[in-house]
Amino acid sequence: MTPDAGILTTLLRSFGDAFVNGLGFIHGDAKWLLGILMVIDLVLAVVLNLSDGDHMKTLIAKILKYGFFIWLVMDYRNLTNVVLNTFQAVGLKAGGGAISASLLTDPSEIATYGIWVTEPIFQFIDNLGAIDVLKNLHKIMFTGFTGLIIILCFFIIGIQIFITYLEFYLVATLALILLPFGVNRRTAFLGEKAIGAVLSFGIKLMVLAFIAAVAIPLVKTWSIPVDPTNEQIFCLLLGSMALTFLSWHAPTMAAGLLSGHPTLTAGTAAGTVVAGGWAAATLGGAAIKAGHGATMAAVSGGSQVAGAYKEGGMGGVARLGRSYLSEGSQKITDPFVSSFDSGRKVASMSGDSGGTTGGGSTAQGAGSGDSFSHMDYAAIRKRLRYVPNSVPPSETRKGGSARPDLEGGDKS
């Protein structure tokens, strides 16, 4: 598959199909697990409540609980679709109903709004002539970089919508296998967490649908002239970053809706703006530095080739290439040559010390070159004496103990 503008929508539909198929794959396992846990829970309830006189009350409570979880497991696919469609419809309706559910489920279309909004900026750059490019180079760099940031903002909005739907599909699919654990009091937390996760992601989708329903009609009204001013480009960037900020913090707002605490503050907005500005400045500086380095390298290389061709034609160019090749090979082989020379010097120094330490070629080794030939092992052996009360090695054949005589006397 060749990637195109609808890649996010294609991925989302693929995961939607996997959601439907995944529920079918694990539905049988969920039913089997539910039956096993129901039997275990019923047996434990009967055994632990034998002394209770009102068994009918316990039986009715168990029947109601089992019936509720049987209904959840058996009709789980329809229930998840109801949750998804309901929260989505509520968010769109609260936002004014200006967009349809089909547009919300098409994140690629939302992401391409950034390309549509910035089209006049890039048309302005394309229509400049060679002389105008040199005169307006700073404006071209500024408008082009700003246009890329605006496109990135809308890409982030589309990715956020894609991730929200994807999270719902993943959680809803895998939560099915955890629902049967809710029938037992000691494992009920697993089933409760699964139900809560599905509902919380549904609320997150509702918040994001509300933001999209309000923002997309406003984006459609944005338009800038063919020759935009810096103020118009800045205002377009500001609006794009504001919408990106709202969509990025949709999960936080959904959590605040559940917990009852405010989540969007001036500090949060300032932190997001500072982080975004720092990232943009870093990327821009790196791009400008890399472009400057590449330009200077190209100019330098081109001037050298032109000079070589002027002096000697193609032969001069060939000689220039050979010089660069020999210089590169020399840089590669220099470390090995220096290492070899260092080893040779160390070996020669060792040989010289072995021949001169013993007093020339005729003393202690006759100049054999062995660095240890000057040692007098007989003298060293005389300096060792046995510790008193130790057993000599000749009697036990297990060795003895000795210590050096530092005074140099012959105690043998």
Task: Please render the helix and strand layout as text.
Blueprint: H1 7-48, H2 55-74, H3 76-94, H4 101-104, H5 107-111, H6 113-117, H7 119-126, H8 130-135, H9 137-175, H10 188-220, H11 230-248, H12 250-259, H13 266-356, H14 377-382, E1 384-386, H15 393-396, E2 402-404
Helix pairs in contact: 1-2, 1-9, 3-10, 9-10, 9-11, 10-12
H/E topology pattern: HHHHHHHHHHHHHHEHE
How far do the termini sit from each other?
A: 94 Å
Read across the widest sheet, the strand sequence of neighbours is 1-2
Report the C-alpha radius of gyration, rounded: 41 Å
The count of β-strands is 2
Structural class: mainly alpha
Shape descriptor reads extended
> Biggest sheet, open or closed, and with what strands and sense?
2 strands, antiparallel
**Domains, number:** 2
Q: Residue share in helices?
A: over 70%
In terms of DSSP E residues, the strand content is: under 5%
Low-confidence runs: 266-276, 278-288, 290-299, 352-373, 394-402, 408-412
**Count of DSSP helices?**
15
Mean pLDDT: 73
